[in-house]
């Protein structure tokens, strides 16, 4: 929660009428000796909307009816369980006896003059690893100096539509569309109608994160 407040302080969430509308998400995975730990959160215009702890994702704001949300929770838990099983399999083939922490930070801003900015950043063990250049849907290596795994991950992520064009659409169209709709309304937005889109972003990020961690574990730290 402190991290979220600091982020909002930097972005000026809710500070005044000139502050940009924002959607941000932070998702972290820690892997150690075949075990995976997940946590993270999502916020819409500075309001905490979703919270991930372990295999359970909770909607902090009542964005969807209970029956629909229960189905969403099952979908997330199923994916994370599958991901955890893959990590265990990878670790048996190529054991790594040190902790790896992968963090994904994404979002979009809608500024008062109508301009927008979207971003997606990945860090590995606290160091910039990769970033996604949204305008032309390309991945860029951010690791300082030579790093064979970062080079390999960049090439792999560029191979698939889901990690290029689909991700670009999420950030440029879906995310920004949520903010434009909110900006056009008076009072509180009808967040319920947008909840599936927000969850789509969350699930899309999990999928990308799974691929990135899988690449790193499969290579065992060398390509």
TrEMBL record:
Keywords: Glycoprotein, Membrane, Signal, Transmembrane, Transmembrane helix. Gene3D superfamilies: MHC class I-like antigen recognition-like. The chain crosses the membrane at residues 197-218. InterPro entries: Endothetial_C_recpt, MHC_I-like_Ag-recog, MHC_I-like_Ag-recog_sf, MHC_I/II-like_Ag-recog. GO terms for molecular function: signaling receptor activity. One of its GO terms (biological process) is negative regulation of coagulation. Residues 69-180 form the MHC class I-like antigen recognition-like domain. The keyword Mitochondrion does not apply. GO terms for cellular component: extracellular space. Pfam families: MHC_I_3. Residues 1-15 form the signal peptide. SUPFAM superfamilies: MHC antigen-recognition domain. The keyword Transferase does not apply. This is EPCR protein.
């Amino acid at each position: 929660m402190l991290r979220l407040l600091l982020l909002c302080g930097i972005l000026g969430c809710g500070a005044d009428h000139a502050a940009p509308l924002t959607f941000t998400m932070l998702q972290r995975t820690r892997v150690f000796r075949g075990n995976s730990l997940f946590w993270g959160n999502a916020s819409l215009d500075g309001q905490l909307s979703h919270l991930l702890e372990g295999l359970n994702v909770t909607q902090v704001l009542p964005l969807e009816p209970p029956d629909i949300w229960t189905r969403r929770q099952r979908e997330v838990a199923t994916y994370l369980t599958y991901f955890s099983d893959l990590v265990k399999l990878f670790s048996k083939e190529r054991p790594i006896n040190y902790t790896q922490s992968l963090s994904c930070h994404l979002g979009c801003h809608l500024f008062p003059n109508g301009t927008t900015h979207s971003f997606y950043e990945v860090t590995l063990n606290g160091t910039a690893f990769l970033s996604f250049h949204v305008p032309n849907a390309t991945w860029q290596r951010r690791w300082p100096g030579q790093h064979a795994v970062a080079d390999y991950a960049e090439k792999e992520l560029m191979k698939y539509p889901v990690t290029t064009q689909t991700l670009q659409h999420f950030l440029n169209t879906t995310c920004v569309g949520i903010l434009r709709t909110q900006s056009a309304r008076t009072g509180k937005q009808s967040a319920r109608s947008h909840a599936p889109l927000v969850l789509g972003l969350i699930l899309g990020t999990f999928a990308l994160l799974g691929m990135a961690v899988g690449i790193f574990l499969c290579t065992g730290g060398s390509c």
